[in-house]
Design brief:
The structure holds two protein chains of two kinds.
Chain A lengths: L2 E5 L2 E3 L5 E8 L8 E6 L5 E7 L6 E3 L7 E6 L4 E6 L8 E7 L10 E2 L3 E5 L2
Parallel strand pairs in A: 2-11
Antiparallel strand pairs in A: 1-3, 3-8, 4-5, 4-9, 5-6, 7-8, 9-10, 9-11
Chain B lengths: L3 E4 L2 E4 L5 E7 L12 E6 L6 E5 L3 E2 L7 E6 L2 E6 L8 E7 L5 E2 L3 E5 L1
Parallel strand pairs in B: 2-11
Antiparallel strand pairs in B: 1-3, 3-8, 4-5, 4-9, 5-6, 7-8, 9-10, 9-11
Chain lengths: 120, 111
């Protein structure tokens, strides 16, 4: 079955960096774009970034543009989010999500999320 | 950016009774390919979101038929025909026509 497992979250000081990972299984990872979506404590969902199946195209929300980068290693079935210059407002649960059913354009599978807390 | 506005933000419902959530977008969600990429997700307490409905009215695999979606253009509705205890949670609409944005969420609770 489809599984997405995030890791790498933790407590980090403002201005520091953190790298999140998302390990995928149960589907052909190398043929799908993958996304990061975050949720601040007690708040709603915010799309963060996306990467195409081959890593050739990358997209970012304005709130993280220039600070976050997204990458993938298809040989390891893993997605990454490199977060630099972290701010308190980046505190959130970070989910990886995919649109497995191609014509739905909806996030049909989600990981359990990893919590990032930016605090001094 | 397209702004998604949900109403109500909270909805107390009696078990077995219907519930309805509205979602309005700041501009039309009709894509240049003719499709409307509006979906609905459910987030139960402590869980990641779960897809219920895609492209306005298509139920995702395994979603009970008491959930239905409707609408067009900028106005959309999620309906639950008879609310069950397991339906408690927060419901989000999401558009994928132009980038991706979510509504603020509607909390469904039992009276």
């Amino acid at each position: 079955q489809v599984q997405l497992v995030e890791s790498g979250g933790g407590v980090v000081q403002p201005g520091r960096s953190l790298r999140l990972s998302c390990a995928a299984s149960g589907f052909t990872f190398s043929t799908y774009g993958v996304h990061w979506v975050r949720q601040a404590p007690g708040k709603g969902l915010e799309w963060v970034a996306a990467i195409s199946y081959d890593g050739g195209d990358k997209f970012f929300a304005d709130s993280v543009k220039g600070r976050f980068t997204i990458s993938r290693d298809n040989s390891k079935n893993t997605l990454y989010l490199q977060m630099n210059s972290l701010r308190a407002e980046d505190t959130a649960v970070y989910y990886c999500a995919i649109m497995l059913h191609g014509d739905s354009w909806a996030f049909d599978y989600w990981g359990q999320g990893t919590l990032v807390a930016v605090s001094s | 950016d397209i702004v998604m506005t949900q109403t109500p933000l909270s909805s107390p419902v009696t078990l077995g009774q219907p519930a309805s959530i509205s979602c309005r977008s700041s501009q039309s969600l009709v894509h240049s390919d003719g499709n409307t990429y509006l979906s609905w997700l459910q987030q139960r307490p402590g869980q990641p979101p779960r897809l219920l409905i895609y492209k306005i009215s298509n139920r995702f695999s395994g979603v009970p038929d008491r959930f239905s979606g409707s609408g067009a253009g900028t106005d959309f509705t999620l309906k639950i025909s008879r609310v069950e205890a397991e339906d408690v949670g927060v419901y989000y609409c999401m558009q994928a026509t132009q980038s991706y944005t979510f509504g603020q969420g509607t909390k469904l609770e039992i009276k």
